[in-house]
Design a protein that fits this description.
By secondary structure, the chain is mainly β. It is built from no helices and eight strands. Strands 1-2-5-8 form a four-stranded antiparallel sheet, with no helix packed on it. A four-stranded mixed sheet has the order 3-4-6-7, with no helix packed on it. Strand 1 and strand 2 form a beta hairpin.
Length: 69
Amino acid sequence: GRVEILLNPGSFVRLGENSKFEFLDTALDNLRVSLTEGSAIFEVIASDDFKVTVGTPKSNFFLVKSGIY
């Protein structure tokens, strides 16, 4: 199936089928997640106090601007 997870008010992650996802840190000033399999869409309202780090098997991404990734 698919899932939508609220990260903070206005920010979401949407996971595709057969995806594997894990929270590494849930602190709002250091939110870190790992996407080890599948696909995800991140809709993020970023600020100085809220940024998202996404780890994948091949790279790390830092979502520091508001947008859809």
